[in-house]
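We modelled the chain as a single entity of 364 amino acids. Its sequence is:
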Amino acid sequence: MAAVRSALTSWTTLLPLIAVVLLVITWGRDLGPVPVAIVALGLAGTVLAAVHHAEVVAHRVGEPFGSLVLAVAVTVIEVALIVTMMASGGDNAATLARDTVFAAVMITTNGIVGIALLVGARRYGETRFHPEGSGAALATVATLATLSLVLPTFTTSRPGPVFSGPQLTFAAIASLVLYATFVLTQTVRHRDFFLPVGTDGQAREEEHAEPPSTRATLVSLALLLVALVAVVGLAKVESPAIEAGVRAAGLPQSFVGVVIALLILAPETLAAVRAARRDRMQISLNLAYGSAIASIGLTIPVIALASVWLSGPLQLGLGPTHIVLLALTVVVSVLTVVPGRATRLQGGVHLVLLAGFLVLAMNP
């Protein structure tokens, strides 16, 4: 009874419920600085709670399903944020999806990977992972990013970095097919490629504490859904403040997408770092590349569908600077994952690439 009472009063249980109440109170209102700050804290805390409950569910189903659950949960939040903010219009509505998805790709492939490699190598000297699994994930990321974010810049059916209707339909279908194929590969056909590497260099099953009960898993699943609804709603409430803050700081409106991606991927980063500290670098890479794949593979189809009823153009094509950054990221990432082991140097290189992206995002 005491354990049940403790679970019911834990912050991961209370925060999603409090966030729903906060959403009801603030929805449709013009908020001052103090309420905006409270909503921001509630939003950040609820994202952490959502990821906690995703990890509980992940613990129950095991790896690599666990990384998949977390990546999909985070991506659902990201997609919902993009759609709700695009629906509200604004100066950057046409490019918000592109800015957010590209920021997510750069943060995951350089930020999460870089931090995890640095933490793991600092603790163990070098980190080890499966080049087969990580390489396949990276190839999927590169293909998705090129099809969805690079090609629109060079197509000629419509003026500007915009897909025509048939082209957008193809990109959406291709994204879903690639995502589904990757998930099948990761969880069924070649599951051992995505398990942590043992001391003998072979895949090893995760050594976990006793998994949660079915009841606890179902409770976490329900709270995860509540948290996702609350996050989407609070982000919609907070979006005017985010855009106003970006303008007040003198930053380009495209930086709103970077803020969204940083917010959503912060818990994912923490999970990857925790895995790296436990010498589970493959799980860190699963989280990073899996999030990038889900971010493109799920966001583009949803945005393509939403574009039917959303007003205004949908600009997906990247500019020359971002295309160069993406190409350099792919090349460096290939050199990182092919050997199956990495040191602090590779982590530092990826973090420098992330820093370059952030500097250029703030000062194009």
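As a brief sanity check on the tokenised model: The chain has one domain: 2-362. The chain is about 75% helix and 0% strand.
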